[in-house]
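Target chain:
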Amino acid sequence: MDLPFLGDRKLFEQLPQAALLLDLQGEVLAANRQACRLLQTDEQDLLGRHADEATGFSVLDGSCPLEEVLQQGREGQRLEVEGQGGALPLVVELTPLFGDDGQCLALLESFREAPVIQEMSSRLQRKQASLQAEMERSRALVNSIADGIYTVDTSMRITAFSRSLERITGYAEEEVLGACCRDVLQSSACDTDCPLRWTLENEKPIQNCRVTIAGPNGVSVPAFISSDLLRDPDGQISGCIGIVRDRSEVEKLKQRLGDSPAFSDFVGKSKVMVERFELACNVAATDSTVLIQGESGTGKEIMARTIHYRSERRTQPFIRVNCAALTDSLLESELFGHDKGAFTGAIRDKPGRFELAEGGTLFLDEIGDTSIALQAKLLRALQEREFERVGGVKTIKADVRVIAATNKALLKEVAAGNFREDLYYRLCVVPLHLPPLRERKEDIPLLIEAFIQKFNARGERIAEVSTRAMALLMAYDWPGNVRELENAIEHAYVTSTTGRVERCFLPTALQGRVSTFDGQDGGDLGEEAEGLRQVLERCRWQKNTAAQELGISRTTLWRRMKDAGLV
């Protein structure tokens, strides 16, 4: 069947959308099967009817699209309408059809269901709602974290500010958005070593940079700041994120507990140290007097504090007296106190350390440096649990546990007549000897790792220890013991420019004492290979153990073994 203006009916039926052929008055001349299916009728019911009546939606009323198409000439028109009582959203297109002479003879009205477009719009809206909900969840998550979180752009201007950081700083987010972060945080590192600026410049994160920031009412807040980069979808750097961890409570707790240590402050897995830990645990459960002996720098005071804070007296004071730092007269007054008028300058009563330590622990450091006369008074205080103040007549009872420490061999001092034998045995109820570092060298790598972690808390600088540096540290005798080792690692932390502890960054005095090394940092591979081989032999070539001793990863150990020709 031929159609006016369209020719073969097949072409009309093959149109992908529903279509009506209209004359210039808008009456239906033909309808394809898609149109009949969409309008739920047959073609005969549509023929001769106006399009608005036939379709159920008006496109020919008022400012008639048909007239606009006829006036525009060769341009068609596309619009969205609602049909059949608003139940069927449609996209309608009116296209003029021209004869050979260029005159418009009819119009082709095609329409298709709009649900596809509506679904796309609905899907986009759902996606936007989902993204908004995700942003709200992320914000709620960030705000639930105790650490303060903020972000800055590449100009160091704040773009986000979490609720926890509002609490830490006293600023609300709306007050600081767009402000320069240094004006808000006023950190002690802002002008010299800002972790966020360093991260933006070097494109590397910073962990736990120790700073103080301005808190509410001008009160300084101790904190750690960590930083990392932010990137846009194209991978370009768009800013930086800062994480602020408030250390106020930790510092207050430390101050309240007097920087009390736990056994975690002692680093070591050597047999001799494990035995000392077990003994300390046992004696902490009693009130017995303890005599801690060991060389300087072995941790005698830390051990005394540990015993106290693991005992039943841990909630009471821990009082320390350095017996070597005071003259006899001053030390007696310091220990037992004095009454007003006891001597020139004694303008009021002053309690002594025994009174201040009531219910707690009194730590007598360097007890071997006291005089014989003072030792007699100490003996009475220990035996009778009572004393008198200098210049006083009232006897004061003392519920105090005594822990003494010395770096001297007290038995030799007793034999030489420099220390009272009866006081020695009164103090040495439980003797606890801390070995020098040279007698537990297997603990050196663990100590080094602990010190690196401690110093890196100020700002990440050291990642590992070179093999040659570790070999030197293991060969040294450490006359200053753990204290000297800590100082050496801090020296390397400060001076290192390579992110490693290397021989050239260790104190020169330390290197000069090791006869097996020449003190130069440019030795040949044979020297490094020999040091590595010695460590491996000591560990029976167990790579995990050797890597732990050297303070490096197993992968790094394998690479160095390969470079040294040991594999």
